[in-house]
Write a structure and sequence with these properties.
single chain, disordered N terminus, Methane Monooxygenase Hydroxylase, Chain G, domain 1, 2 domains, 3-stranded antiparallel beta sheet, 4 helices, elongated
Length: 178
């Protein structure tokens, strides 16, 4: 006696949302196989950049801006207040960095979000050391020229870095769009 296994496939229509928070679904194909006991699905996930912009880039950008704003606070504000602002911002940036790593694939190479996070944390750390140097030099009488220079240079370098990053990221994004 010979058992014959009949194979058949029934194609189903995908009627769900094709745009999710983090991904867009392209070319969905659903098939019922083996007498309806097995469902095979194939689709392409297209990453939605808005998700990362809203959840990683904008919070870190504004946190970075807060650390730069501490350079322009009134000189009468106590050193510990401004330094705590920058340290808290540094901790927030590190938390954002870790959160952004959770939502992307693990790779051996650096991705653009990694470069952004390193840049934001570097700006914050630079502001920390700048405030520290200001406090040390307060008693030497050369604080005012250094304050003026750093109040111009740090925001300028930050603006150039942000501009270059977004220019390169935009060019790469549009290069890989179908």
């Amino acid at each position: 006696m010979c058992d014959v296994l009949l194979q058949f496939s029934v194609y189903l229509l995908f009627s769900g949302d094709k745009v999710l928070n983090q991904f867009g679904i392209q070319d969905p194909v659903l098939r019922l196989e083996k007498n309806g006991s097995k469902l095979k699905a194939s689709f392409v996930l297209d990453r939605n950049p808005t998700f990362m912009i809203m959840n990683a880039y904008l919070p870190s950008f504004f946190t970075m801006a807060i650390t730069i704003a501490s350079l322009f606070l009134n000189d009468q504000i106590h050193f510990t207040t401004t330094i705590m602002l920058v340290l808290t911002s540094q901790l927030c940036l590190y938390t954002l960095f870790q959160t952004s790593l959770d939502g992307i694939p693990k790779t051996a190479y650096l991705k653009y979000i990694d470069y952004w996070n390193m840049f934001a944390m570097s700006v914050s750390l630079t502001n920390f050391f700048t405030l520290f140097v200001w406090e040390v030099l307060q008693y030497k009488g050369i604080q005012n020229p250094i304050k003026t220079i750093t109040r111009v240079v740090i925001p300028l370098i930050t603006f150039i870095g942000v501009f270059l990053y977004w220019t390169m990221a935009g060019l790469l994004h549009f290069q890989y769009i179908d």
